[in-house]
Amino acid sequence: MPPTSVLFVASECAGFVKAGGLGDVVAALPAALRALGHDARIVIPRYDVIPTQGMTKHATPLGVPLGRGDAWSAVYETRLPGTDVPVYLLDHQALFGRGYLYDPPGAVAPDNLVRFAYLSRGALQLCKALRFVPDIFHVHDWPSALLPVYLNTVEARGPLARSASVLTIHNLAHQARFPASELPLTHLPWSELRPDSLEDHGAVSPLKGGLVHATKLTAVSPRYAAEIRTPAGGAGLDFLMRARGADLIGILNGIDDEVWNPATDPALPVPYDADSLAGKAACKRALQQEMGLAERPDVPLIGVVSRLSEQKGTDVVFAALSRILDLDVQMVIVGSGDLASEGYLLWRSHHGGDRFRAWVGFSEALSHRVEAGADLFLMPSRFEPCGLNQMYSQRYGTLPIVRATGGLDDTVDNYDAATGEGTGFKLWDLTVDAVVGTVRWAVETYRQRPEHFARMQRRAMQRHFGWGEAARRYADVYRWAVETRRGA
Ligand code: ADP
Ligand code: GLC
Questions:
Q1: How close is the Cα of 150 to the center of ligand 1, in Å?
Q2: Backbone φ and ψ of 161, nearest 5°
């Protein structure tokens, strides 16, 4: 089978704009596919936070049918930083020049159906303009889920009709729904507003449409692919996941081991690797200094880098905070998300004594310094489709404390005090007692069994979480999707 051509269409891509792990995947996977010889390219919106200096502007503007006419757009082209992956940015500032990705802080954008319909339809228009017919359109969560619907309807007889589509489910709980009256703005036919397509309880659900229309579906870990077929994990769509079960597989995310490499990470004051952890001690000292914590090498430092949302269990961490700090540890939380949590963190950081500091906002560089400077990383998610931070932590020799769910359970080996085996510490119940108890267990291991702790650190750092294997598995899914599409 010859190499595949695949166009990633997504709302985030690390290196340009990112709100979470989806953006990391949309950057790293195309790079890994390209290394295997496939023609992988990326389309994202040109949010105003992405500067266009150094990019090539296409000579002809692109018309995207939307609303009452065509949305005329500029197209910028560049490469994914550090790679030769082409990236196309669709520029329509009335839709994306707003200083936010999905919604303004504490509010809801009024026109997200149109904004993200534009992304899907725009990607198809771009392919036609470039005469680029990819074998696969690879779309991600609800923001690009309308693409397979367009492909099977308005494009069904067009030049892209032989292209297959793959929808990756990063998080089934994120389901944007819109009033049915807005459907005409998308130029999709009313006939798609039915329960076995876009319709969800009378509303338009792009995700549902994508799940029905995509040629194949993937989820970001095998465990999550199973969880979403159950009422407990299916976010109301488990029946659909079961109905499409034969076309759904789980592929565990990798991590970009060049971006997340403590030996070469430009965000760190001192590099280090598994053979010499002296640099890690220096990173800890620098982090304590940066955050205004006492520079104590002996005190266990616990890091959190997270979206502040129910999914991540940060509410339970907040409830457990005083008891955790009573264990004579230091803690640093870097997070952004719901406004009440942000407010609490800022307040607590000012009034919480000398053991706790929070940084509210989104900082890529600080997230790297926390991964490097902390001894332990806390991530007790309610559910976690895959999770990347627990893998970054292991690569940085920072032992993760995780709840045994989804991808967290798949990627962390629990400590065994009898043998010293393991790469982290697991809890099962999401309660304050379980969180405090597991943190205590990790802290006691740090203090009383330093030789076990050091061996776990080295073992964690030597684990392979790279994208190579996952990229090969995606290439197999692409071939499978093409066969299904063209055989049909
Ligand atoms: P999710 O995508 O559900 O948020 P993941 O663990 O898959 O969870 O990925 C989260 C990504 O977003 C990681 O790269 C993490 O470092 C990053 N991240 C989350 N919050 C912040 C923040 N406040 N500042 C910097 N990076 C963050
Ligand atoms: C989602 C999930 C997270 C996953 C990420 C990348 O944001 O919440 O678990 O790691 O997507 O696939």
A1: 31
A2: -65, -25
